[in-house]
Write a structure and sequence with these properties.
The protein is α+β, with helices and mostly antiparallel strands and 134 residues long. The chain has 4 helices and 4 strands. One zinc ion binds next to strand 1.
Amino acid sequence: MGFGLVPITGWLALDPLVAALVAFNILCTGYRMMRSSIGGLMDEKADPEAVANLRQVIADQAAGAIEAHDVRTRTSGNMTFIEFHLVVPGDMRVDDAHDICDRIEHALLQLGDAVISIHVEPHREAKHHGIRVL
Ligand code: ZN
Ligand code: ZN
């Protein structure tokens, strides 16, 4: 490209100038392309409205449990990753605790694609600052 311009314009400075502009344009385009493709791959915070919504779902579905805390969410593409601790009475049967987890998971999945992990804790671990179920 640069080759053809010099004889036509007779302006020698144009050649490196055009080359620099073309290079700059390639850099900018490349940067934008990279940003948009990486943005879809990188973890992003779930939006606050969605978080409030899923906290409500957890509270609604957690009957039998005492508290949910350390709720963490992030999104990657269309997928939401949800993690939290579920505090249950220490003498609750695993069967029953698992039923609560399944119920919450099922309800959360109605909101959209999600990978959910729930850490069940006995009552003495309660932090009393999470989602109160009672
Ligand atoms: Zn905990
Ligand atoms: Zn299960």
